[in-house]
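[job 4471] stage=fold_predict status=RUNNING
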Amino acid sequence: MAASTLLDDLPIADADARSPGRLGMILVIATEASFFAYLLFAYFYLASMAPGAWPPAGAPSLHLALPNTFILIASSATIWWSEIGIRKGNQTQLRLGLLMTLILGIAFLALQAIEYSHQTFSPDSGAYGSLFFTITGFHGAHVFVGLLMNIVIQVRAWCGHFSEKHHLAVSNIALYWHFVDVVWIVVFASLYLSPRLG
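[job 4471] inference complete, writing structure tokens
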């Protein structure tokens, strides 16, 4: 009887925030945060080695990066809205929020691709170009992965897999998406804004 009681207390239900799925997502975010921290450390270390000459061609343009930042922030709001919806059992709000997040995420990647095509430097044009495209490119890859997660969750949402008591998968994807958005804000501040402060 005691063993059965202990097993019943294990956090294995998808409605439990202590579940392995939640812990797994937190660990993924922690490792990816470390990854971006290393890249940004390399960026600022090299910048400190070339005072007054970093970036070599001047700060990157804000023409597309600034509106793209607002797009990604808006996508964080829409996925938060969708999560709030399913917490109340509102299936329509969940589906619409996920769809809007998907559209905004695709728009972000499209604008980033356009920005890449207008850059005056390339990944092989030196340390700065290599770091710029590596940092923003890996972030873009994380956005792409988030969009794939979004699609899977949307399919499940349309199949009615979530309810106000069972929506941990939605919460996990929302957590990942918020992380991706926060990383972009740090990347934007580091690569686009910090060179303008010197």
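[job 4471] summary: Residues 17-196 form a domain with the Four Helix Bundle (Hemerythrin (Met), subunit A) fold (CATH 1.20.120.80).
[job 4471] exit 0
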